[in-house]
Design a protein that fits this description.
Elements: E1 2-3, E2 11-12, H1 18-61, H2 79-84, H3 88-120, H4 126-134, H5 141-155, H6 158-163, H7 178-203, H8 207-215, H9 220-231, H10 233-248, H11 252-257, H12 269-279, H13 283-314
Antiparallel strand pairs: 1-2
Helix pairs in contact: 3-7, 3-10, 3-12, 5-7, 7-10, 10-13, 12-13
Length: 315
């Protein structure tokens, strides 16, 4: 539109299309958000149904006397939680699980790191060694338990007959050696998995840093302490937390190998909870033990994460 007057200059007015474009942009954003929500809806529903609802029901059942079969549930308050601290079997199983976790975390971390450093060096046949070390990860813990039961019970004792020795290779047969036997079996299976995480961390370290250290006169030990370890901080955090929490939840390996024996010397906390719920039909008491064990796991993981993250910053 053009306006002309006596003392006026020609003036034109243009109607902007910006408001319309903004509306279309908002519609596209809303449509995209709806698509994202629809994509997330199935796993979200599965998570709620499979995790959140059972967790809430388990917490509620821990305050009742439900046996897991009948429809009757009587509210008994904190009685189940009080009984936990009087349960010698729960305390013993927790001690065994704690020892298994401590030794497993140390051994698995050190061994995985060692193999990662070895494979990151200039040795020959790297792919062959990597495959051999990683292969047991693909096996089921049930199968691993059966393999090592056969190893300790039949294969290794044949060495005694061959060389006229009297070594007790059957580590699962004695309460004094059963923990060692389980540690060997568990580490044999999982070292390769954590080795790959350390190996990925080592290969991500820029080679320029090592070259600069060499120019400054640094030896291999100084490179290892001042470059390799600090740069592997995130990998160390991931491996330590993963190994520790996985060790606390050990179940299948023990069921397939020792069954918690000899006696109850290798019964883990998870195994004791399972036996209480399904063998003794004390579901409410087992729920209370599960809640306590879950809290211990969360507290332990939180402390580990805080300590290791702080250590990363210091390094």
């Amino acid at each position: 539109m053009r306006l002309e007057g006596k003392n006026t200059q020609p003036m034109s007015i243009t109607i902007s299309s910006k408001p319309t474009s903004i509306v279309h942009k908002k519609k596209r954003v809303n449509a995209r958000n709806i698509q994202y929500f629809l994509l997330l809806l199935p796993p979200l529903v599965f998570f709620i149904v499979a995790m959140i609802i059972p967790l809430i029901m388990g917490i509620y059942n821990s305050f009742t006397d439900w046996d897991g079969i009948s429809l009757e549930k009587n509210w008994i308050g904190f009685t189940n939680y009080i009984e936990i601290f009087k349960d010698e079997m729960f305390i013993e199983s927790f001690k065994f699980t704690g020892l298994f976790m401590i030794f497993n975390t140390i051994i698995q971390n050190v061994a995985a790191f060692f193999f990662a450093v070895m494979l990151d060096s200039s040795i020959k046949a790297k792919n062959f060694y990597r495959t051999i070390i990683f292969a047991p990860v693909l096996l089921s813990p049930i199968l691993v338990g059966q393999i090592w039961t056969k190893m300790y019970g039949t294969i290794l004792p044949s060495i005694n007959d061959l060389f006229a020795l009297s070594i007790n290779f059957n580590l699962f047969s004695s309460p004094n050696t059963v923990l060692t036997g389980l540690l060997v079996a568990n580490n044999w299976q999982w070292i390769g998995y954590w080795m790959l995480i350390y190996l990925a961390g080592l290969q991500a370290v820029p080679k320029d840093i090592y070259e600069a250290c060499t120019v400054d006169g640094g030896n291999w030990w100084q490179k290892f302490i001042h470059i390799t370890i600090p740069m592997l901080g995130p990998s160390i955090t991931i491996c330590t937390i993963g190994i520790a929490t996985g060790s606390l939840k050990v179940y299948e390996l023990i069921v397939a190998s020792t069954g918690g024996g000899p006696g109850d010397s290798s019964k883990s906390t998870i195994m004791h909870i399972y036996d209480t719920a399904f063998m003794s039909q004390q579901s409410s008491y087992a729920s209370a033990m599960s809640v306590v064990f879950l809290l211990v796991l969360l507290i332990f993981a939180f402390i580990q994460l805080k300590v290791l993250r702080k250590r990363e910053v210091e390094l």
